[in-house]
Amino acid sequence: MVVVEKPVAAVMVWRVVRAVVRVVEKVPLGLSMGIMENAVVLLCKRGDVSCGVLLERTLSFQSLMTKLFAKWKDLSEGSFSLSYSFAGHPKCLLESDEDLCVLYALTLSSRTECVDVAVKDLVDTSTVSTVVDVCSSSGDVGCDQLVLLDSVGTQVDLLPSFSGTNNSKVLKSAGWCNAIIGVGQVFLDGAVGFRDALSMYSLFHGFKYVYAKNDAQTVKAVCLERHTSKECNWIVKAKLEMPSGYFIIKQFVGEHTCGDASLSYSSSRSTSSFVGRLVSEDMRSDESKRPVEVMKDMKKHYGVEITYRRAWMAVKKARAHVYGDYMESFKELSWFVGAFRASNPDSMCVLERHDSEHFKRMFLGFAACKYGFTFCRPILFVDGTFLKSTHNGCLLSACAKDGNQGLYLLCLAVVDSENYDNWYWFMEQLKDFLEDGRVLVFVSDRHDENLKKRFGGLDNSKKKYLVNLFNLCAYAPTVREFEKLLNKLKKEGGVKVAAFLDTLDNQHWCHAYFPGKRYGELSSNLVECFNNWIKKERSLPITLLFDKIRLKIMEQMFARRSASMKWKGVICPIMEKKFKGLFNVSKTWAISRSSDDLYEVRCDPSVSVNISSRSCSCGEWQINSFPCAHAFCALKRGGENLNDYVDHYYSVDAFHNTYSKSINPVPTIWKDVSVGSDANVLLPPLCNKRPPGRPRTERIPSTGVKSRKITCGRCGQVGRHNRARCKEPLQH
User: Fold this and answer.
1) Among 442, 548, 660, 708, whose CB has the most other CB atoms within 10 angstroms?
2) Tens digits of residue pLDDT in 661-672
3) 301-340 pLDDT, tens digit each
4) How far apart are CA 283 and CA 289, in angstroms?
């Protein structure tokens, strides 16, 4: 230890330092962005906030003060003290260049790389408050009042407290202050790391710079004012050091002599690549992050203004960095197919390509879902939705409903477009995948422009009325009710609507004439829910698209299997709630019994119920395969167990079997780094002709589906807009 009993010249102290350096090994390079040789980190702590300062040989006490003033704006000379603890000495003052030299020597001799420095605020003793008795002869002011007068000192400026300028926010860019430190600073990432550090440094200090030289070996930057009018001395130069490949600063003049002329909120050096690297972590947690949000985040968290175009490019590059490039993703698709088949051997994966080795279409079916589907109702909902990736395309899917009315995906496919050929191919793959000969009912959506064209030329109110009548015809449970409503629809719609209805086969669109069991299902809204469920995944590269959907289904199956273990009933909770609703409806009805199995329920109108054949004259029990309100009333009157008259598909036992199997993980740990470079590589799909108009990002809602009204959080009105899109004037 070096002991200084009384003040010594700085030259003598530096001789001691050099003597110590000769016997101390060189401090190893750290892993930070910029590193100084033989440098020590001073962790300066004030309250709950800490900042790091590099203690190097050339650092003066005044430079240390300048760095602390930049970190804490409310500090001033004489208002605080610096101290540190070292080798059993609890409080060593840090007040001059000599103290810094001694601290540097001590750290080298003890091989210390970090020292805690306490920044302690002092009470301003230059201002003495005097208590004065003030007695008013007029009696307006009482003699017992005390007034504090500052006899000596500087007046405190309280004006900024009214404008809010003293409530400065700590930005995420606060650490950029020391991104560039000085000569000898090392950048392990080479020229890219140095350029990023230079961008951070300039954005924090609010100045613009230009490159005097910029290549792989040398990067030299000068202040914009120096480049234009030769009036600023700021300059930094870094060169490549071989064979390490590091970039090291060789020249640095950190003082701007151009004054405030170079200060700016924006910078041309905040490139889209730089911004993309900043927001990449946010993109990982929020795949749908928009350019407008990036612009706001850059201003709010970094104090930097960027254009919409730059934010858009940054989002694109960040998404490519996090999720991979769209073009490169097709090269990994062959590997994914092999890995999926290996981890899920009973599943089905079909990948087709053109003769030119370009992607054509791909089918993916899960064996666990196929097994579980045997315990679901034999009805499938099929639909297609557009993809939002670079190459567009369409995703086809087939879904079922479990016993608790939940979405149950069976298989999916990605094709180049939604047409007859691709749908025929999808159905062929689905047939080969199921291979059990089970009779199935398919529910599909109509073309999005069908009813618009058929009911064209009518005003909106008339069209809405006709669509409502059309829905009533479709859901009519008996032939008599159907014919009655159909005649009314033809009469109200006229010749055009009647001609359209004559072209439809009744057994395909209405309950009354359907020969099979469709369990009351008429719309494909379930698969539309699936399309909305994977809304974020639809914008991902194709390999990640398949893998993300696989992950969601895998997690969903485990979550539902775990949740169902806590169920205590015989039938699923949703169906139990339905029974409770039927109980409330049938409270006022009267019942007469004809025989052991036959009942008459006197309501408006009255109906007959046969519990042995599970039928009701209203037709709902036969259509839904679930007791209607009349049947519920009759079963309760006869003392029957309601659960015995519910299809097995609605039971908890069937639900357990539905989710008893699992989808296996597809780990990438064995993925070869050379994937995408072999001869079996798959090329992106051939360019399809872009459809006219602006590309859709939202699906067209089904006819007859009622949209949910929302309440605006700003104006309080009920409508179709929210707080972000509210343009209503506020009433005070």
Assistant:
1) 548
2) 999 999 887 777
3) 888 888 999 999 998 888 888 777 777 788 888 889 999 9
4) 6
Tokens of 679: 């001869």
Report CA-CA distances (Å) from 344 to 337, 426, 698. 10, 21, 33
| Main-chain dihedrals φ then ψ at residue 386, nearest 5 degrees | -80, 150
Say what the alpha-carbon torsion angle 251, 256, 257, 262 is, to the nearest 10 degrees.
130
Residue 565, classed as helix, strand or coil, is coil
| Cis omega (within 30 of 0) for bond into 243 | yes
- Quote the tokens at residue 430: 């689905």
Report the interhelical angle of 97-109 vs 10-23 (nearest 10°).
10
Q: Write the DSSP assignment of 374-442 as a string of letters.
A: TTS-SEEEEEEEE--STT--EEEEEEEE-TTS-EEEEEEEEESS-SHHHHHHHHHHHHHHH-S----EE
- Angle at which helices 479-502 and 460-475 pack, to 10 degrees? 130
Residue 526 has pLDDT above 90, yes or no: no
- Cα separations in angstroms, 38 against 21, 24, 95, 264: 9, 10, 22, 35
Quote the CA–CA distance of 666 and 339 in Å, as a whole number.
6
Q: Are strands 394-401 and 359-365 parallel, antiparallel or unpaired?
A: unpaired
Instruction: Please say whether the beta carbons of 574 and 404 come within 8 A.
Output: yes
Residues facing 83 on adjacent strands: 93, 118
The bridge status of strand 89-93 relative to strand 80-86 is antiparallel
pTM: 0.63
Cα distances (Å, whole numbers) of residue 653 to 376, 405, 569: 11, 15, 10
Q: Distance of CA 181 to CAs 9, 267, 317, Å?
A: 27, 20, 29
First to last CA, the chain: 73
What's the CA gap between 397 and 400, in Å, rounded?
Answer: 10
Query: Torsion angle, CA of 75/80/84/88, rounded to 10 degrees?
Result: -160
Q: Is 342 exposed, middle or buried (0-12, 13-18, 19+ CB in 10 A)?
A: exposed
pLDDT in tens, 527-559: 778 888 888 888 888 898 999 999 999 999 999
| CB-facing half-sphere around the CA of 272: CA atoms within 13 A | 16
Q: Secondary structure of 218-240 in the HEC alphabet?
A: EEEEEEHHHHHHCCCCCEEEEEE
